[in-house]
Amino acid sequence: MADTAPSATIDPSALTCPAPLRDQPVVVLGHGGGGALSAELVAQVFAPAYGNEVLAGLADSAAVTLGGARLAFSTDSYVVRPLFFPGGGIGDLAVNGTVNDLAMSGARPAHLSCAFILEEGTELSVVARVARDIGAAAEAAGVTVVTGDTKVVDAGHGDGVFVTTSGIGIIPDGVDIRPQRAAPGDVVIVSGPVGLHGVAVLSVREGLEFGVEIESDTAPLGGLVAAMLAVTPDLHALRDPTRGGVATALNEIAAASGTGVVLTEGSVPVPEAVANACGFLGLDPLYVANEGRLVAFVPRPHAEAVLAAMRAHPHGRGAAVIGECVAEHPGMVVARTRLGGTRVVDLPLGEQLPRIC
To answer: What b-and-e string marks burial along 113-146, b requiring 16 or more CB atoms within 10 Å of the CB?
Structure first.
């Protein structure tokens, strides 16, 4: 019988790097974790296959021009386990995650598509609950679900419910937000406390109790970004620190812009419950996923006014300045520790907590 395995039809030497993906012959969980392995997968497999100038920007959403209008276009898949957790569920994530990716380019989110992959044997009541959550989250975010698809896979070949959403939004005139625009002198702001989503999912998944219920921060950020743009359209870079957390978001922007970032560790708002949970589990809150937060690189002359506008918005009340963009150590993130030293905050290899979004 002929060998039909993928390794028999794909020559690794034909890929962009002769020794691709750290010599991994198969996909591992880290390839979906948003860290270094994910970046290598995109750079060495996907980008060479269908790369173009728009894709090369590697922003949260693609900025394209169609019929004279500037549009943001994004897509994302959700495989979170468990499907429901304190503060939300896969339905909220599917809407808010895509809406937020659009907002990170300054776009006003408008329409979504929604595709379900269902495992045979999944209770219809579960599917209905996810669908209702999607509808409610879309209404709260001010978007409409206008198209979709459904597929069913054999029992044992899925995990209940997977959801993929794509979205489009309109980018206002005069707005040019992308990671390449981060510049020395920019003030780095985070919109609120970090680490809540990842710890909330883990606590339910593993049956852990930390003395207080930790809820996910999942939320749509389009309104918050609009409030920031009302102060100035000259926001340089925005990122929602989902997989890989704040540390990964900062590293991605530093690499894309060729600048350095100095992070003040003590200024990062970490809730006490999250800090305690991370200490118990041996996790770094900077790398834990968020689903309702953004990181902003704001020109210093506008930083104070933008910060005030963020704190006046429901989804930015806990906003804080956490660092600055510098010309030194380009592409690198360095943290000033509480003890007065410094440490490199590197891009993680994979994800501390898999299946969190």
So the answer is: bbbbbbbeebeeebbebbbebbeebbeebebebe
Which ranges of the chain have pLDDT less than 70? 1-24, 33, 350-352
Identify the domain containing residue 25 by its residue range: 1-51
What is the distance between the alpha carbons of residues 7 and 18, in angstroms, rounded to a whole number? 15
CB 107 within 8 A of CB 72: yes
Read off the CATH number of the domain in which 215 is found: 3.90.650.10
Is residue 357 a contact partner of residue 242, using CB atoms and an 8 Å limit? yes
For residue 231, the one-letter residue type is V
SS3 per residue for 123-144: CHHHHHHHHHHHHHHHHHHCCE
Please state, rounded to an integer, the average pLDDT across all residues of the chain: 89
Residue 161 lies inside a defined structural domain of this protein: no
Q: Which helix (H) or strand (E) holds 8?
A: helix 6-9
Listed in sequence order, the DSSP H helices in 53-190 are 53-56, 90-103, 124-141
Residue pair 281/202 in contact (Cβ under 8 Å)? The answer is yes
pLDDT of residue 206: 79
Which residue type does 123 have?
E
Instruction: Tell me how far apart the terminal alpha carbons of the chain are, to the nearest angstrom.
Output: 40
Tell me, yes or no, whether 331 lies in a domain.
yes
Q: What is the DSSP string of 267-279?
A: GS---HHHHHHHH
Q: How far apart are CA 298 and CA 330, in angstroms?
A: 18
pTM summary value: 0.88
Is the distance from CB of 236 to CB of 183 less than 8 angstroms? yes
